[in-house]
Amino acid sequence: MQRLAVYCGSATGSDPAFAETAREVGKAMVGHNIDLVYGGGRLGLMGIIADTVLENGGKVFGVIPEMLRGHEVAHTGLTELHIVDTMHERKAQMTELTDGFIALPGGIGTLDELFEAWTWNALGYHGKPFGLLNVNGYWDSLVTFLDSVADNGFMSVARREQLIVSDNIEEAISRLKAAYTGAEGKVTW
Ligand code: AMP
Predict the structure, then answer these.
(1) How much is the pTM?
(2) What does the radius of gyration of the chain's CA atoms come to, in whole angstroms?
(3) Number of domains the chain is built from
(4) Which residue has the CA at smallest separation from atom 16 of ligand 1?
(5) Range list of H helices, the chain
(6) Residues 147-176 pLDDT 10s
(7) Residue 68 lies in a domain
(8) Above 90 in pLDDT, residue 186?
(9) How confident is the model over 67-115, as pLDDT tens digits?
(10) Ligand 1 binding pocket includes 73 (Cβ within 6 Å)
């Protein structure tokens, strides 16, 4: 696994552990020689993880829609910043660029991205692994709800178990790597 898409808040959230974890994830990725794919912004946890990967010598690939770039939220110091027309193109391009996905704490943008990665996997558009980094129990209630989606018969247990959930960065990365299938993960639209 050479690249990981990190989905996370464009805010830093209320718990200082969120920003600290974004820094730790950035450092851990460089330590594993994994480059960052992300939404190309400079705000919140997004900016923190991008800066950390760059400061530690890693590569960062951002994908941002023209409209957000116009609002001056784009990070201008990335290895590559891809400008696209729409949010849909952004997620498609991030999916093509990455080998897997992880969501750190975030809001509706992060949820949208995580669920699209999962849905596209479920429909067979890609075979890339995806997970949640559960910082200080931030995702607990979502995980409980997702378990109930499977309990209620709207998702198989196997599908639910595809979502890697961990509160430990090294464990999350090693489980994503173990689930990464290389060429089988390639995107077919
Ligand atoms: P949220 O979790 O609602 O803060 O949204 C963050 C996610 O949505 C990121 O992973 C981005 O890809 C995208 N996003 C939302 N707001 C912004 C922004 N101001 N700049 C860049 N990307 C954003």
Answers:
(1) 0.96
(2) 15
(3) 1
(4) 10
(5) 16-31, 44-55, 66-70, 87-97, 108-122, 140-151, 157-162, 169-179
(6) 999 999 999 999 999 999 999 999 999 999
(7) yes
(8) no
(9) 988 776 999 999 999 999 999 999 999 999 999 999 999 999 999 999 9
(10) yes
